[in-house]
Amino acid sequence: MLLTELGDFEWRLSFGMDAALRSAKSEKPSSIMKIKKVHLANVEVVSNPRWQSRQILKGIVRIFTLVATIVALPAHEVLAFAVTETRVLPFPIEKASTIPFNGDVNPYGVAFVPENFPTGGKLNPGDLLVSNFNNFNNIQGTGTTIIDISAGGSTSLFFQGTAPLGLSTGLAVLRAGFVLVANCPTNNQPPVAGAAAGSLLLIDGNGNLVNTFTSSEIQGPWDFSVYDQGGTVWVFVSNAINGTVARIELVFTGGNFALKSATTIASGYTHHADPATFEVAPTGSAFDSQNGVLYVASTGDNAVYAVPNALNLRSSKGTGTIVYADQAHLHGALAMVFGPNGDLLVSNSDEFNTDPNQPSEIVEFTVKGQFIGEISVDPNLGGAFGLKASKVTDNVYHFAAVDDNANNITIWTLNAGN
Fold this sequence. Notes:
Helices cover 11% and strands 39% of the residues. The protein is mainly beta. It folds into 2 domains: 2-80, no CATH class; 94-415, TolB, C-terminal domain (Neuraminidase, 6 Propeller).
């Protein structure tokens, strides 16, 4: 339950064996973890030999009691009693402003710089990038900047493009040493301005624009997810103008990427311009490369869909199959990513099925559609949007989510071993 851990800090301390046993007995089979090693911690050396002997004897009795209890437990409870060598205490939460020097606001896209990213430019492994959708006048679809938050917490400008731009939720750092961002600018059309066709922008590691990809299949790129294989990158673009999802294939050649193919693979999602949210359309997506399934969050339908065989489809097969449509917890599904535990995490716009008691929520659920937990990033409605998870080590992950009400981003460090 990733989000429950984030919100309540219910981190289990492995120092007290009685507490650990109580926790083990309350664990469900879904929480199975492997026993690595049992620790004895905080042992105090004392000068009284008689007292010390009694404590040692008590310790031996407790150890044998522990072993006997574990043997007597059902199999799933034995496995649930896990005391690992990973950190148990929660890491500090970090927050950073997302407003650059030019005053751009409304942070949308989020992307971590991976450990294998080529060095020598502005970016370093562990950095966090955030794209801004509005300019200093808070006009939607006019933001031109991407900021860089270093692993140490300092903030700098990574990229500033030339208007007209509207850098939306689609943001990814590619293994080949580039950054890809969705450009979904305003069309400035009354009575309700919405998205223009836009493009995908390719930026090098020094923050220079090196390529702009346009296509009839790119129609207001509201968000995207990527399947990055180094020399080939598949980009699943959610289009605001026509309510479709397109698969864009980029290939690396001659030191740059070129657009090889563009195919619409899903369609039929609710879509329209909106004075509050700019666009209501399919937004977040997450690709399961093992099973070939693309999960798509559609805001106006307030549901998450599964599109099978997403890497090989040659035409649209409609919306796909609904896997999650929880009216108790979904309030306009927006950006979406996989968590380190394989669950899906989706932010909510609060534009649909609004509940003032659940403002700016990020919801966690399984790919089978089971609700797991939720966390609020802002006490007011409409603050949740872009989010991303990134592996640091086998046991440690970073998770970041913007609050576009407050124009900041929160970064959690998660101990996946717990």
